[in-house]
Write a structure and sequence with these properties.
Number of helices: 11
Strand order of the largest sheet: 1-2-5-6-3-4
Structural class: alpha+beta
Order of helices and strands: HHEEEEHEEHHHHHHHH
Largest sheet: 6 strands, antiparallel
Strand content: 5-15%
Length: 382
């Protein structure tokens, strides 16, 4: 095995209340900082006449023009299932994307960000032109083979229908597995494009479908009782992949405590999962816990001794542990050296004091002797 390339932003649960404004949707659900009091943004969120361009974000990078008006009051909410007809063209008119009946869940970034934002402002049966600058389209990477880097894309979009999301409790194991893995794969796509925050958003949503359901209805209980052990095991395997990928994205954003919780979720079920052990070791390394990281990676190395990524990490940690040990020794030596120096200083002071006292004593004795000799000489002369 090699270290997989898929190396906390929380998502809101459930659909948006029907009373939620479109500005709230964009700001809170799609994580864009929209000021609804800004004149340009306020204008963008109101109804407009056909053939009038509106600037959705107020920065000129996402514009929408209604070609055909839809049914008033039928705008989708977050988590609604939208069926779309999409044609995307480059500036020279080349068709870069085309979908006849594309189903996406609004707010789950199953399409590029610009479309996810713009669709929230469409009514059912509406046809609109949407101009998306690179930042909200495919950015500097583009999308091979049809979309070059830094491309502005001109979409024609028809919102064919809007359906409510099905209740999770009514879905079968196979349905949950299919939806969860679709969202996980979308998260992988965002991760490979160096968008770990968007990847985490997808992974969090995927977890909702791949986690065991508590408080099941009797219908769901009956359905799961008929599920085979193989199906449940497959769901568990997919969940472990998801936690590993989530940990990798969290590591990218330096959310090490959250990443550690994710890999621990894997290791509780699969204590010999090498990928989880490898990532746990790297997380502890990044947290500065070098000795603990080394011990975890030793476990991974025992399971897969030929994996170069593990051996390289172990070599780095071995050197760091040696430096840490030497640093501790130097500290102890410094402490002991300071203590010895203090004792030597005290000893020197005592010796100096003793010498001073000795000199003083001999001075007194010498003075007394001289006085005695003088007295004797005086008497003898007298």
């Amino acid at each position: 095995m090699t270290a997989e390339t898929f190396e906390d932003k929380e998502m809101a649960d459930g659909p948006v209340d029907s009373g939620t404004t479109q500005a709230d949707f964009i700001k809170e659900e799609l994580n864009f900082d929209v000021d609804p009091t800004d004149p340009m943004t306020k204008a963008a969120l109101n109804d407009h006449q056909p053939e009038e361009w509106i600037d959705i974000l107020g920065n000129g990078q996402l514009r929408k023009k209604v070609i055909k008006k839809g049914k008033t009051g039928t705008r989708p909410n977050r988590a609604d299932i939208c069926t779309l007809k999409i044609i995307g063209k480059l500036k020279d008119g080349t068709i870069a994307e085309e979908h006849e009946d594309l189903k996406v869940q609004l707010g789950d970034i199953e399409v590029i960000q610009g479309l996810d934002l713009a669709i929230a402002l469409m009514d059912v049966d509406e046809v609109a032109e949407i101009e998306v600058y690179p930042r909200f389209a495919y950015g500097q990477l583009g999308k091979e083979p049809d979309i070059p880097p830094d491309a502005t894309i001109f979409y024609t979009v028809e919102l064919k229908s809007v359906e409510l999301e099905e209740e999770l409790e009514t879905l079968s194991i196979s349905q949950r597995k299919e939806i969860g893995n679709k969202k996980r794969e979308r998260g992988n796509w965002w991760f490979t494009r160096n968008e770990p925050t968007l990847a985490m958003q997808c992974y969090r949503r995927a977890l909702e479908f791949l986690l065991p359901i508590e408080n099941r209805t009797s219908h769901q209980n009956d359905a799961e009782e008929s599920t085979t052990d193989a199906e449940l095991q497959a769901l568990l395997e997919d969940r472990m992949k998801l936690y590993n990928n989530l940990a990798a994205a969290q590591m990218k954003t330096q959310a090490y405590d959250a990443a550690l919780r994710s890999v621990e979720s894997v290791l509780r079920c699969q204590p010999h999962n090498v990928k989880a052990l490898f990532r746990k070791g790297k997380i502890l390394h990044n947290k500065g816990e070098h000795e603990s990281a080394y011990q975890v990676l030793l476990q991974a190395a025992k399971l897969e001794p030929e994996t170069k990524a593990i051996q390289m990490e172990l070599a780095i940690l071995k050197e760091k542990n040696a430096k840490d040990a030497q640093h501790e020794k130097n500290l102890y030596r410094k402490m002991l050296g300071t203590h010895k120096s203090n004792n030597d200083s005290k000893s020197t002071k005592k010796e100096n004091k003793s010498k001073t006292t000795s000199k003083l004593t001999w001075s007194i004795i010498g003075g007394a002797s001289a006085a005695l000799v003088g007295l004797l000489l005086y008497r003898f002369v007298s």
